[in-house]
Design a protein that fits this description.
single chain, alpha/beta, 5-stranded parallel beta sheet, 16% strand, globular
């Protein structure tokens, strides 16, 4: 098992069911899923779940992270506060592909109240199938990274 095969998944209480469906979907495609919860529908704050997943990606323990909350926005904002994280919220496959190809995103955020399960699985597939194109995009990613200092 290597970090290159590992994807961390986390969510708030609103997105448990979709998170579990995504976990099964990517595990069936050979990824090692690190699901850090939560496991109950008891209300829980999305910032702590976004941060926890982001820290596993930033540390190199996991290659990618997929995080979910009601809109995907709040948990994404929390994840992006962790140095080294480039997370985008996506509700379509084009954006999911582009954040990998052009921004070298290492995390994806999805809003459970925005997209249904079928589209969410397509978004995850688009994100995980895309490759960073480098070139002129690498310079722009370096500019984003420079903002972290």
């Amino acid at each position: 098992m290597t970090a290159s095969d590992r994807i961390v998944l986390s969510s708030d209480h609103a997105a448990i069911e979709l998170r579990q469906a995504i976990a099964a979907h990517i595990a069936a495609r050979g990824w090692i899923v690190v699901d850090i919860g939560p496991t109950t529908a008891e209300s829980t704050p999305y910032p702590k779940h976004g941060e926890a997943a982001a820290r596993l990606v930033a540390s190199g323990d996991c290659r990618f992270g997929i995080i979910l909350c009601g809109t995907g926005q709040g948990i994404m904002m929390a994840a992006n506060k962790v140095k080294g994280i480039r997370c985008g919220v996506c509700s379509d496959t084009f954006s999911a592909r582009m954040i990998r190809q052009h921004n070298d995103a290492n995390m994806l955020s999805i809003g459970v109240r925005v997209v249904g399960q079928g589209l969410a699985l397509d978004i995850v597939h688009a994100f995980l199938s895309a490759q960073f194109e480098g070139g002129r995009h690498a310079t722009r990613v370096e500019m984003i990274e420079a903002l972290e200092s």
